[in-house]
Each structure stands twice: as structure tokens, then as C-alpha cells.
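TL;DR need C-alpha cells for one chain.
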Amino acid sequence: MKRMVTDIRKNAEQPMASPGVRRKVNRRRCWSAFRHTVPKAAQIAAAFIAVLSISASIALAASPAARRWAAGALYSRVEDQQGFSFGEWRAYLTDGAVMDGKLIAVEDNESISVYEGTNVEPTVYKWRDAGERSINAVVAGSDGIYVIYADGHGNSSSSFNLDYVPLAYGLGCVTLDDDGTFDVTALAEAPATAILDSEGRKLNSYGIQDTVLTGGKLYFTAEYAVESELEGFGYAPQHVRLFSWDLTEAAPSEFDLEGIPVDWSPELFGGGDGAYLAAYDDRAAAARVYRAEDSALKPLCEISYSGAMRPNSFALREVDDALLYVLDGSVWMAQGMNADAARRIAVCGELSGQGLMLDDATYAVLQGDSVKVFDLTTPPGEVNELVVDGDGWNDYANQTFIAEHPDVAIVSDPGKNVEDIGRYSDRMLSGSAAGDVVALEQDGFERVRDAGLIAPLTDPELRAEWEKLPEGLRGYLSVDEQPAAIPLDVFAYLDVAFLTENWDDIRGSFEDYPDTWLEYIRWLGEYSHSTAARDYMIEFDALDGNGLSAAEAFEAYTLLSMADAYARCWKALGEAVDFSKPDFTACLEALEGVDWGALHYCDGTPANDGKEHRAVLFYAGYDPYEDVTVVPCTLRIREDAPKLSRASGTFVFVPAASTSRATAQEYLKTLAQVNQTNYEGSLEAVYYDFATDPEDFASKWGGAESAEAIRQYREQVGDFSFCVNLTRESVGAVQEATNRYVAGQISRDEWLECLSEAY
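>> reply
TL;DR here they are.
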């Protein structure tokens, strides 16, 4: 279990990530980001699934009276302790241990919950007098429960200057009382510098990791990253230390890890009378398991892995020294620690956390807000593997699919390695990819599509989903006029949004909201010379570091948005991109009538002018006010042209090289189902379905959005356009030229020449 992140999460802030924080590469791009977060109720309903497994060669207790645990999931208690208004907040399960067949779980580093079975509500205990202490780890033995706790606050630990390294770490025993509280009796304490960085440097991340109690000693790992060692995108080398803490001693003893490769966060786990460490060596593509003996580590076995996934969630069953772990979408068991003879005993999808044996017949993985439980007594039968890979990974879709298809294990491309992350399209183009279902972002998708590497969608249900798409999106996701892909995330970037409650004051002589770019610029010119321009704000985040004033930055933004819109529509209509056309030059002439300096700008911070709300909000999806309505608009380039919103996204398809096309299309149907049922009351949730009747959509949302609002949204968005893809160099050149043009450093002709070269 990774407590490094959760230690810092306690103060509701995340530090810059460190490579060692994660047990494996996080391969998901957050396919659904913020718009498509799966409702908690749906997660709970889908998570209680029967997971099948291969029976062991020993007799396991399986009678109802002897079994507290059933395959499924435990979820932490629902709380709103952080005061967030956007939904439920679940207490985070930060660590767990097993005692007398019960699960002892620490929630949010501050309370202890005791679970006695899969479908039994836990008994919750609050720390009677925590003071400045917080629980970092919990272990349980025959004589009781022990914790490692952080005590006090020292130097600032993160670049956000909000989280603090503790002054000390303590070892204590826990007393659970009948009044629902618990107390911790301190046994020993050590300064934080004795466990983390001995030099006391400013840390980027830190934390106590896995713990094991055996033979009168508590073994634990600690990890930290020094901020001064940051490299790349905020990453720092991870320092790993392994200790044993005698329950009767004042200070922990450290193991020498010299010569043991530790490329990622290792896992410490227990079993029988031993403590074991699994360390990852990516160069050898091997996870090596060691046993802690005295002050040294004895190698026991080695688990080979391929691709970007590493074995994780280790646990050891005492009765037969069976090693359990998660790898490539499945739970595996290696009896007698013979990794070469490991067998798949359950299908689990993407899973990573702290492995635990609840009893001899039950394996569990504690991760985040849930504990996934696996029954080891029922064989899974024949298991087929479906390779799902690319630029994204949707765990909820995986779990839903596994629930419907328990004979399918979702795995990643076995030939993919850490260096391939984010470049799966290159693997496909080189012929080295093995994906059955692939998700790619726009640039990679276009390259693979144009190379003819995508199989058409033949399933009638999938073709029906494709028919719901707007015309532009259907064309984009087609090969030889046949459906070829469905969208995962599609983001439409509208041009401007108006605050409706102030429209009567700011519209001037305009009857309705501008429909074309020329109308909008003429309105902007009229508005800039009106008294309303002094009373209302234009919501706009001025670009930092470009040397422009707010007025110049807003003018540059308007020019860039307008040029992109014209180029996008010309290309979509099959017209030549020509910035000397009359409709574009008319807009440039109208821009000369805008008094940019007279406009009142705001970057989203509260106003001090007595006006509670402002007039125009740019970045149309951004609405900083909870009690107002905005009208986002995509502007036409001329009256007879269609509305085409600039869009980007991630798209999922079945490669032509897949040998499991039928199963892959079943997965795509599950994914489409997840997208359709995942409504959060935001119009952006209907980002790709323009065919379903608005009344039906409104009924699905239970009145969160009206049918009329859905109709208006579709009208405002228009169609989707993916026609303009400037290179990074071109974007920079256009931005620089536009800044120089508004600053008066180059002429209009020079600016237009730069646009023509870029587009």
C-alpha cells in the first residue's frame, strides 16, 4: 500500500509526483477526466462481482459457517469531512492488517475500522486524543494491534509549502474501547531524520510504506524524494530504506540494501514467521523476492514480467508457502514460492494495492477506498486474454466487462515496456503491437487510421452507437466510409460564452447573441465604447511572461481564436485556407473599431467593483459562479457556413491485426454503455451522442438538465471539426507572431504570412 501519497493527502494537497511513489506505471490518462467520473453508486453496484479462482491442492475451509468472506468488494465509509460540495467523499483506506480473521483498516490516517466480513458494516473507532499524531501504518499480531505514527510537524516537505515532515515517528500499541474510541500507548520513538533523510533536507514526497510484524519485530519500509534532486517533469530519485523495530527497543535497525536493484517502490509483506521484500529490477524485467534474516536479505525467487505492468499486491499463505500477487489483469498463485509454476487463480482487471490473506481461502487487495476480495476455492475455468492498451486505461470499464465476462482477463501488451508509454501508435506502425482494443489520442489515431491498421466495426450495436455521432465526428472515425472507432473523451472548445443575466445591459443594439465572427467583433467594438464596458468584466486569464498588457493579451487571444476558426472551417468545407478572403479581412477591419484598453478585464479573482457577476466568460466551459447561467457559443465564419466546434479527444478501436475481434467489440460495447450511463448533470456529458431524443436524455438525468437545455447545447456546439492540427513549432510561431503584431512590432501582412505558412 502506498502511504507516501496518502500521508500528504491528509492535508488535501498533492506534491509533485515521484517515480517511486507508484508501484507500477500509471497507464491511464484519466480517460474520463472530470466530466466523466463514474457515479459512486454505480461503482458500488458493479464492484460486487463473483470472481472465480482455481482451487488449491490443499483442503480449504469452505463451509458457510467457517467463511466470513465472499468474493466482492468492501468500500470505506461515506463521509464529507473535507466539506466538498460536489459529491460524496469516501474515507481513504491508507493501510490494513488481519487479526483473527478480521480486517483492521486505517482510514485517512486517523481512524480504525474493523471489518468482520464482506457484507458486514465495520465497527469504527476514533482516536481519543490524537494531538499532532497521525497513523502511518498498522500491523496486527497474536497479542494485539500496533501502529507506526507520525508525531509533530517539522520542515515544509513539498513545493506547495503546505505539508510538513513529522518531527518523529513512533511505535505504539492500540487499545480499542467499547465507547468507539481507541488509544495508542507509545512504546518507542525515533526522530524523522533517522527514518527519512538523515540530512533533514526539504522533501518532495515521503512516507512510511509497508509493514510486517513477526518474531517480536516490526519490519517497515520508508521512502522519500529530496526536492533539490528534482529532474524532468518534477520527478526526483526515490530513496528506499528497510528497517526492523524491536518492540522492546528505542530505535529501529536498518537493513543494507546495497546491491539490491530497487527501480520502483518495493513491497514488504509477511507470512508465517517471516518478512519478505519484493524489489523490482526493470533492466532485468524481474521482481525478486527476498526474506529478511537478521540484518540481511536472502533471495528466494524471481518473477519475470514484460511490458509496463509489474507484479504487485504480494501476500503469502502460510499453510503451503503459496505466493499470491497481481499481474496483467489477474491474480496469480505460486505454491511453494515456485514462480515458474505460477497459476492464474482469478481475473481482476487493473488492480494494485496491499495484498492480504483474510484467511487461507481468501485473498484481498486493499486500494484507495475499497478492498477487493477473491475466493480461492472456486476454479475460474478456461481464461481468455484480451489485450487492452494504448494511451488510456479505464478501470471501471474493465471491472464492468469482467463482471459480464468472467472468463476474460484484461491484460496489457506483453511486448510493451516503460519507454513505450505514450507512443503506442509507433508500436502499431512498426508492426510490434499486440493490442485487441486500443485507445489513442488524436494525433496517434490519425496516423494509425490513415495507415489502414483499423478493423471496421461489424457489431450492429456498435454501428448504432456510431450513428449517434455528429456528422463531422462520424466522418473522422470512419475508414472507407465504414464505422471504425468510438470516442472515449471528446472535448469541444467553444469560442465565447455570455453571462445571460447581464445580456440586456451589454448587448447594445444587438437583439440576440452574435452568430458569426463578424457579428461578434462588431458587438465587441460597440461594447468597448459603451458605459457597460466600465461596469462589467471580461473574464480572461492574461498569458504570463509574454510581455503584453492584459488588453494586448486579450487582443492576441481574439486574433488567434478567429484565425483558427476560419482555417478549421475552410478545411472542413474543402475550401482553400486563404487569409486574404473577404470574410476574414472584413473581421480584421472590424477589429480596428475595438477599444481594447477600454475593456475591463478580470482573471477569475473576486471583483472589487461592486458587481457580483461579470459580463463575458472566455474559455466557454469555465464558469466560476455557481448560481448563474452562461450561453457558450461557437461562431460561424459566415452566415451560410455550418457551426464547427474545434474538438480533440481519445478514440478506441479494434486493430486489424487483432485475433480476438469479436471479444474486442464486446469490450467496446461495454465501454459505450459506461459512457452513456455516466451522467453527472453536466451538458458536456452528452459530448458525442447527438441522436438520442433530448426528452430521453433529460429523463436519464432525473431532471438535472432539461430537454430544452440539451437542444440548445447541441445547437451551440454545432458539429465537430478535427481538421486543423498545427505542429508544436507552428503553434509557437503563430503565437509569437500574433504577440508581435498586437505590440506593433510587425505589420499585418507579415502576421498573415505567418498564418498562411502555419495552416
